[in-house]
Amino acid sequence: MKAWQLLRPADARAAPLCLVEVPEPEPGPGEIRLRVRACGVCLTDVHVAEGDLVAPAYPVTPGHQVVGIVEAVGPGVEGVRPGERRGAYWLHRACGHCEACRRGDENLCSYARFTGLHAPGGFAQAMAVPAAYTVPIPPGYDDATAAPLLCAGVIGYRALRLSGLQPGERLALFGFGASAHLVLQVARHQGSQVVVFTRSPAHRELARQLGAMWAGGAEVLAQEEAAGPVPPACDRAIVFAPAGELVPLALRAVRPGGTVVINAVHMTDIPSFPYRLLHGERVLRTVAHVTRRDAEEFMAVAASVPLQVAVQRYPFEQANQALAAVKESRVRGAAVLVLDEPAGR
Questions:
Q1: Does the pLDDT at position 78 exceed 90?
Q2: Rounded to two decimals, what is the model's pTM?
Q3: Region of 172 on the Ramachandran plot (φ > 0 left; ψ -120 to 50 alpha; else beta)
Q4: CA-closest candidate to residue 235, choices 252, 217, 220, 257
């Protein structure tokens, strides 16, 4: 079968992936083989390609937003049958025995393995994955629009949950890519107002189309006396862009007692900032990976909320072009590699 592999870290704009022939994976105990139909491409894949996230060994096959058809079932698998459409996400497996796993924080397991980093991912025609770390894909989403739900949606849902956002409160989003455009819709569905800070005019327009009450640049928060309209104070904020300089601005955007969540697996250094931005019982916290609970709960949300998933489809052969587009923020919504997608679903 064909798979895109990273032989060594390199700039995501320099076509770092090589298309190679590899053997079909055979599912081991507790595993299934997915025939890949679509796989999302996100900033985490860029971080893997460029070595910000270091794989334990190379080559590595990236991709962790995988929609596929169950093709084979390994020994000991129950409740999953060939022919089902299921999705694999960032968490490939956790040990299940350590202190973190016992308290339900399998995302913090020291022995956790991640899809597309420690285990071959979905930039391939097929992949093997533990059945327990896959979820059914809700109807109503074709393969390409379902793929971003498995990372952008799941990690965004976790960030939203950890922010403590309550119905009627106001949420600020910093950066507006694949994850943020889904979080905005969930927050609006729950009865919250949303403001969006992003540099891209196209992303601002998409945010407004999806119901943002305000969209503009974060530079207004750095001005003591803004020259133009400024957004209202927010109760919670989520930082999606991997730019450390946004963190003090997010703290400035929230009220006393508010929460800022950093939703980035890798980020540039956070600059020093005056204590008054944190004072007033503001909370600053991070999101680290996802759990099976997050994936299961968000799939239920996606089944009940008709999310508009903005995707830019790329043929499987254009994996390097998709990676470069994500690196350069040229994607409106989410980038998705598509492998022979059937018409309609």
A1: yes
A2: 0.89
A3: beta
A4: 257
